[in-house]
Amino acid sequence: MHIILGFLTTAITVLYLLDRMGIDIGGLNPFAWARRRRFRERYEGDPIYAVEDTMEIAALLIAGMARIDGDMTAEQKEAIERAFMSTFSLTDKDAHQLLLASTHLLGAPQIIHTQLEGLLKRTADTFTRSQADSILDLVGELYAEPLSEDQRALRSTIREKLRIGEGPNTEWSR
């Protein structure tokens, strides 16, 4: 027993002396590592992946279809805002703010497809059947042929990821 007490006393003395010398051994704590890693991933990560509201995700998909070929025209913005007002039951101001927030979160046109595909992988199961159908209807309504190659690829990705089975019918709500 006296040997164990000797080892414990030595270990505590060494830790105390390391602390007095300015050497921090708190970095060896695995709980602190996990906490720092989660914070770093959240801080350095793409903010588009923090979106969890289905209405905001739908707005990102619709705005992404328009922005994938470059900047949106005034006509596209107006059509998207009208679609947001009718589909999501938003006011003109709320629809405009939703479009602004969506375009702000989207990156450069070269990475929009990758961003939205990653977002759909994470959140496709949060959509109800009626919400998925609504998004697909909006995409079909707003983006009729002729579509660019990038728009076709994004539309097929949206259709593929939003294949929802039978589920509860729920409308959009904020």
Keywords, please?
174 residues; mainly alpha; elongated
- Listing every helix as H and every strand as E from the N terminus to the C terminus, the arrangement reads HHHHHHHH
Oligomer: single chain
Mean pLDDT comes to 86
Quickly count the domains. Answer: 2
| Uncertain ranges | none
Structural class by secondary-structure content: mainly alpha
Given the structure, what is the number of helices? Answer: 8
Q: Can you tell me the overall shape?
A: elongated
Percentage of helical residues?
Answer: 55-70%
Please give a structural write-up.
By secondary structure, the chain is mostly helical. It folds into 2 domains: 2-44, no CATH class; 47-161. Helix content is 67%, strand content 0%. The chain is built from 8 helices and no strands. The protein is elongated and about 85 Å long. 18% of the residues are buried. The mean pLDDT is 86.
How is the topology of this model organized?
Layout lengths: L1 H19 L9 H15 L9 H14 L6 H15 L3 H14 L6 H12 L5 H14 L6 H13 L13
Helix pairs in contact: 3-4, 3-5, 3-6, 3-7, 4-5, 6-8
Nutshell version of this structure?
The chain is an all-alpha fold and 174 residues long. The chain is 67% helix and 0% strand. The N and C termini lie far apart (65 Å).
